[in-house]
Design brief:
heterodimer, A: 257 residues, mainly alpha, 0% strand, B: 366 residues, alpha+beta, five-stranded antiparallel sheet, 20 strands
């Protein structure tokens, strides 16, 4: 019988994947300062995090950057995908190819590139430099997600809309936009997550005046893991679970078509 | 002029370098059911898309009710299309699909609901207004597509192979319904199909196309009974072709001719002189078969052997091989009085056609 063996194998994989996360979540509720023993349930570290102004500031900064970068990347990326889908223009292949270059480049290469550009252009390292670079590295993911969705739908729909009297703008608003919306939202969620947990590029392009969460945490753990970090990770985990659930629900709506 | 709703003249259309249509002319009468018939790739769909405005002609004019429309964008032409794959908007209800054109054309809000209901009633889908397209069967989606187009009261309704995705039975039923709907609405229908049976059964007039050229235009009867060339003859239904040589005119378009080795009198509506070569075209139902023993000895027909016989329910179709090696397809209705009516395979028979039922065309090189 292969079944018990198979089950234990599956179990092992899950333990391997989720045990560290589970320990982290449990420890965030642990009264003890050190994660080696359980000293009772407590929300103490949550409270402490709430009062840790520097960390909370970095958290809000991160959310702000992620929201803005994801939104900007989604708008620009969706328009790019539409342009590539809808129109024939010179150097179309080149334009889409360059997008893949951004996608494939190691973060460290992008980070150095951004840094050099900002220094050459004399842009002060801080909020704006961070936002611009986050928009840039999120962009290809949005374009690819939205373009895949556009390619999947029937061009006849656009012809039918025109045939029924809808001009370019109105067929975009009434047909194209509702149909690509799930992909647009998926692109936004993807960008949001990418932006939120980026360390490498952010380290290079941000200045001391504007600190974001991953960098703050990174500097914190250098001097030992504080229980607050566990709390923070737990909160982020909950946030990403919610986002994943939204994405899955949207996917279910889309499959009905 | 008012007789013709749609006049295409001198239309040329190229895709890349390939010329799909060259100097193409077409006139369609107001209120008729007109069919463009041809094999795939003959340019029939392109003609339809040019009328709809989904393609732009390289040259030529398209006049709708006297107005030039070739320069108008698709959204401003008073024609609507029923697409082959329906192209219903998946994120809208049936009601919103049908209302789409009315909304785009700025029809007053309180006029939209009654018109949508009327259109859905015409295609018997009144109860499905709140469904989504994916909840409907293929036939129902087809009807929604038709309702979505006719609700706008177009001058001309364009149908692009609209029934080809349906199964045979449903297709036959939709053919009848389409025809009824067309009569009821009084709208000109331009239908594109490669199915000759569909074209013959629905249309007032048919245009047979091949390789971007018009081959023949006429009523289904004219197209079937008097094809103007071998392409049309072969494309529409089954046909037997006899080579023939004119021997001598007999007056009043009657000629004595040697048809496939036998002297026969044929009717040919053209001037011909001795030695002219022609094709004699015979539909399977124009031919008659008799047992050798029953036939008078002096009759002028063809001797052959039964190669194959197929019972189709309504007719008995036989394949007969003549002595010169040519195969003939014969289709005969059953004679209720003659229950033994049947042939044995290999049996030798006389084959002849009913005098006057032959159709003769000038010889073509191909």
């Amino acid at each position: 019988m292969i079944t018990p063996f198979k089950w234990s194998l599956v179990g092992l994989v899950f333990v391997y994947l989720y045990l560290p996360i589970a320990i982290l979540v449990i420890n965030s509720f642990n009264e003890s300062k050190y994660g080696f023993e359980w000293k009772g349930f407590s929300l103490r570290w949550y409270e402490k995090l709430w009062h840790n102004d520097a960390l909370m500031q970095a958290f809000t900064n991160s959310l702000l950057i992620a929201t803005l970068a994801a939104t900007a990347a989604t708008v620009i990326g969706t328009l790019m995908a539409l342009a590539v889908y809808r129109y024939q223009f010179r150097m179309k292949k080149l334009a889409t190819g360059l997008l893949f270059v951004v996608l494939m480049s190691p973060d460290i290469v992008l980070a150095i590139t951004f840094l050099v550009i900002f220094i050459v252009l004399g842009i002060h390292l801080g909020f704006w430099s961070l936002l611009i670079s986050h928009i840039t590295f999120c962009l290809p993911f949005v374009v690819i997600t939205v373009y895949a969705q556009l390619k999947g739908f029937d061009r006849n729909l656009l012809e039918a809309a025109r045939d029924l009297g809808a001009g370019e703008w109105r067929s975009f608003r009434t047909i194209v936009l509702p149909l690509v919306m799930p992909a647009v939202i998926a692109g936004w969620l993807l960008s949001f997550t990418l932006s939120l947990d980026d360390v490498i590029i952010s380290t290079f392009v941000t200045g001391p005046g504007f600190e974001i969460l991953p960098i703050r945490v990174y500097s914190m753990v250098k001097i030992g893991v504080s229980p607050e970090v566990n709390v923070l990770a737990t909160l982020l985990l909950a946030l990403s679970l919610i986002l994943v659930m939204i994405a899955a629900l949207l996917g279910r709506v889309r499959r009905k078509w | 002029m008012s007789d013709f709703i749609l006049v295409l003249s001198g239309i040329t259309k190229r895709f890349d370098r390939e010329e799909v249509l060259k100097g193409f002319d077409l006139t369609i009468r107001d209120g008729e059911f007109f069919t463009l018939l041809g094999p795939s790739g003959c340019g029939k769909s392109t003609v339809l898309r040019l009328i709809a405005g989904l393609e732009q002609a390289n040259a030529g004019s398209i006049r709708l009710a006297g107005h030039e429309i070739a320069t108008l964008p698709a959204e401003r032409r008073p024609v609507n299309t029923v697409f082959q794959n329906y192209a219903l908007f998946p994120h809208m209800t049936v009601f919103d699909n049908v209302a789409f054109g009315l909304r785009m054309n700025g029809i007053a809000r309180d006029e939209i609901a009654p018109r949508v209901k009327e259109a859905l009633a015409a295609v018997q889908l009144s109860d499905y207004a709140q469904r989504r397209p994916h909840q409907l069967s293929g036939g129902q989606q087809q009807r929604v597509a038709i309702a979505r187009a006719v609700v706008n009261r177009p001058r001309v309704l364009l149908l692009d192979e609209s029934l080809s995705a349906l199964d045979y039975k449903l297709r036959r039923q939709m053919q009848i319904e389409l025809k009824q709907l067309q009569r009821q609405l009084g709208i000109t229908f331009v239908y594109v199909t490669h199915d000759q049976e569909e074209a013959l059964s629905m249309s007032d007039r048919v245009l047979v196309m091949d390789q971007g050229r018009a081959m023949q235009i006429g009523t289904p009867r004219e197209i079937y009974e008097e094809p103007c060339n071998l392409f049309v003859a072969r494309f529409i239904g089954e046909i037997n072709i006899f080579p023939a040589t004119i021997l001598r005119p007999l007056g009043e378009y009657r000629y004595l001719a040697e048809v496939n080795g036998v002297e026969k009198t044929i009717r040919f509506h053209q001037q011909a002189t001795e030695g002219d070569e022609v094709h004699v075209l015979l539909r399977p139902e124009d031919l008659r078969v008799e047992y050798i023993a029953d036939a008078p000895v002096d009759r002028r027909g063809y001797v052959g052997a039964v190669l194959e016989r197929n019972y189709t329910g309504q007719t008995l179709d036989s394949l007969i091989r003549l002595e010169n090696g040519q195969n003939l397809l014969v289709s005969e209705f059953f004679n209720e009085d003659d229950p033994d009516f049947d042939y044995r395979i290999g049996e030798r028979v006389w084959v002849d056609w009913v005098a006057g039922w032959e159709h003769v065309i000038a010889k073509e090189s191909w």
